[in-house]
Design a protein that fits this description.
Oligomer: single chain
Number of helices: 19
CATH superfamily of the largest domain: Gamma-adaptin ear (GAE) domain
Structural class: alpha/beta
Helix content: 25-40%
Length: 684
């Protein structure tokens, strides 16, 4: 078992109870950092004993990564000074998690590290007897409670409960008394043996994530198929999923990467409309393609009208929390609860909040309550606990019933589902759930989905629910991501300014030989769907940015990959229209205002007047979004970026970083470095 020497252990004990005074804080931070250094500098044979084999190595990597990510998230939200204090309880947390590798059980008390550990400190023979326990540092108790978004729980007040020696997730350990089984009564404290060569090989935990497979959009001939139609998409889940996997040291599966969600994760300063009656003003820019000198990119950008706080409609929100056993992990239910607490601060006093939880059966945790009754709502959130199977369909049905009970005319009525997506009891097929969501959508109650965790995450189902519920799909892997989605972007997440937004582009074969839509594979529509108001499409929230790109091959370019038809005719520009001879395409955008059933139309030609001679002539936002598109395509292993390196894309993004108040673009640059390192070559 990995141990800290006597002096360092004493320092760590002291840091667990330091009061938040300035001088004491500085000493605490220094002592905690020394404790971390001691852990890293432990004897090689002890480190090897704990980390031997893939399981041990992955465990320590996971512990270190989780600790560092938590501190960085806290720093982003609270500032460096407050975040520094978190190192104190976190130091004890990391130390305890590493010691947890050994096969003994523990008990959490207020006294710190005593009992068996004290005997080890004193040099006594460390044999475990049936009536002996090891106590968890108080810092571990405080860290668990802090991560869960609550106050440190009083130790020993919640009774006695059996628990595994290496618990996976679960409630704060302050509430658990964990006793030594008799079978280990005479076992010396030492690491569990790992299989020797030739023994049963290490088996990684089964990954049951469900990701929808999709084929990258193909190149199309502008002469044969001149019209492209798709629904807009403001989801961001794919970016957060990709980020988590890269941070954990693995390249994401190509199907995990939806390029449009990568692009639309970032906010852009696109021109906005002047009124909510005409909520969009499309901006189109044509630039040379950075990954093929003989092609161009047609960049389409819209930004929804940003509602003023005084004009925002009332909100009727039902928080639907998955509290099944699969949510029993630190990055699931505890993070879910902390996220809901952040959201509450963004609501108006007259908004209504209800809470439904589901696990085996569904039930109302909180009946419709005014947001001004904050203490009551917070108490309901804090009382959520995980356990049981997943009656997802029953939970959705109950949530919709509460939404109807407190329905707000001319307001926002929305169910907000927070889950890992494991619907394993009740209505379980995607089609059944889709029909349920569609029926409620017609009543004016929409659904947004917030995914948590991995290994059991049903991304495919989350996409189906959000797309058919007129809502957004986001993936929350950190508290910082919750703050971005539910605080910084609260109005765009909650308040729609346009429904069923569709885009259709007709390319001019006299100017364009070929085109390819970048992303939006799951949002494709038939040509006739554009004018059919019964066909559902994506919604856009207040201030939401939507960006789409086409890679186009100009007529006569050597980059053309589809041969001309032997018997086909080359289309000419319309006679008598001088502008048409300079048009690359014609853009149409269709949308419905909230509460209306008849769509409205915006049209604009795309001409050589929209063109920039060089990529550097375009704005920072245009260039940065193009870099993100390149990153997403490269992760999908697109052939057209095979000769473009990670370094090329990173340099384009770095030059276009621009204003970055929250550091999201800087984080993107770091992710590209990770992706390049994981491929083993920046050319792969």
């Amino acid at each position: 078992m990995l141990m800290i020497d006597d002096n360092e252990l004493g320092k760590l004990k002291q840091t667990a109870s330091v009061e938040p005074r300035d001088e004491a804080r500085e000493r605490a931070i220094a002592a905690a950092m020394e404790a971390f250094d001691a852990l890293r500098a432990a004897e090689a044979e002890k480190v090897a004993a704990v980390t031997q084999g893939p399981a041990g190595r992955d465990r320590l990597i996971s512990i270190a990564t989780g600790a560092w990510r938590f501190v960085m998230d806290a720093r982003r939200i609270t500032g460096p000074a407050i975040a520094a204090l978190l190192i104190v309880p976190l130091g004890g947390y990391v130390a305890w998690k590493i010691m947890e590798t050994a096969p003994f059980r523990t008990i959490a008390t207020d006294d710190g590290i005593t009992g068996l550990q004290q005997r080890v400190d004193d040099g006594a023979d460390a044999r475990v007897t049936a009536d002996e326990t090891m106590e968890v540092p108080r810092a571990k108790v405080e860290a668990d409670s802090e991560i869960a978004g609550g106050e440190p729980a009083p130790v020993g007040q919640l009774g006695t409960q059996q628990y595994d020696a290496a618990p996976q997730g679960g409630a704060p350990l302050a509430a658990k008394r964990m006793e030594m089984p008799a079978t280990l009564a005479q076992e010396r404290v030492r690491p569990m043996p790992f299989p020797a060569p030739g023994d049963q090989p290490y088996a990684a935990p089964e990954n049951r994530d469900r990701i929808e497979g999709l084929d990258t959009n193909p190149v199309k001939s502008a002469l044969e198929t001149p019209v492209s139609t798709f629904s807009v998409d403001v989801d961001t889940a794919s970016y957060a999923l990709v980020r988590r996997q890269l941070n954990e040291g693995r390249l994401p599966a190509p199907d995990t990467v939806r390029v449009e969600e990568m692009i639309n994760y970032f906010s852009y300063d696109w021109p906005t409309a002047d009124s909510a009656e005409v909520p969009f003003r499309p901006t189109v820019t044509v630039v040379p393609s950075p990954w093929n000198a003989h092609r161009k990119l047609m960049h389409v950008a819209i930004k929804g009208y940003d509602l003023k706080p005084a004009t925002r409609p009332k909100a009727n929100l039902v928080l639907l929390a998955d509290t099944s056993g699969s949510m029993n992990a630190p990055d699931k239910l505890p993070l879910l609860k902390a996220s809901f607490r952040l959201l509450l601060d963004q609501l108006g006093a007259d908004d209504t909040v209800s809470i439904v939880s589901y696990a085996g059966t569904a039930g109302a945790v909180l009946e419709p309550t005014r947001a001004s009754e904050k203490a009551k709502i917070l108490a309901a959130i804090d009382g959520l606990g995980a356990g049981g199977s997943t009656a997802g369909a029953a939970g959705i049905t109950q949530a919709y019933a509460l939404a109807e009970q407190s329905f707000v005319e001319d307001g926002v009525n929305r169910v907000m589902l927070a889950t890992d997506g494991d619907f394993n009891v009740g209505m379980s097929s995607d089609e059944e759930l889709k029909r349920l969501i569609e029926d409620e959508r017609e009543k004016g109650i929409f659904l947004s989905v917030f995914g948590f965790g991995e290994g059991n995450y049903n991304d495919q189902l989350m996409q189906v629910l959000a797309q058919n519920g007129n809502g957004t799909a986001a993936y929350i892997d950190t508290l910082a991501e919750a703050e971005k989605t539910l605080v910084q972007e609260a109005t765009s997440t909650l308040f729609p300014i346009a429904r069923d937004v569709k885009i259709q582009v007709e390319f001019n074969p006299a100017m364009v030989a070929e085109y390819r839509l970048i992303g939006y594979e799951t949002r494709a529509l038939n040509r006739e769907d554009f004018n059919n108001d019964r066909v559902d499409a994506g919604d856009v929230g207040s201030g939401h940015s939507v960006t789409a790109m086409y890679e186009i091959t100009p007529k006569g370019s050597p980059a053309q990959v589809i041969d001309d038809l032997r018997y086909g005719k080359h289309e000419r520009a319309r006679a008598g229209d001088d502008n048409a001879s300079r048009e690359y395409a014609f853009l149409k955008l269709r949308y419905k205002l909230p509460g209306e059933d008849v769509s409205k139309l915006i049209e604009t030609p795309v001409t050589t007047a929209n063109e920039k001679a060089t990529l550097d002539d375009a704005s920072n936002d245009v260039r940065f979004s193009i870099a993100v598109a390149g990153f997403g395509q490269k992760l999908r292993k697109a052939d057209n970026l095979a000769e473009t390196s990670w370094v090329d894309i990173a340099e384009l993004a770095a030059r276009a970083r621009g204003n970055d108040p929250y550091g999201y673009r800087a984080e993107f640059l770091r992710l590209m470095k990770l992706a390049g390192a994981l491929t083993g070559s920046d050319k792969q």
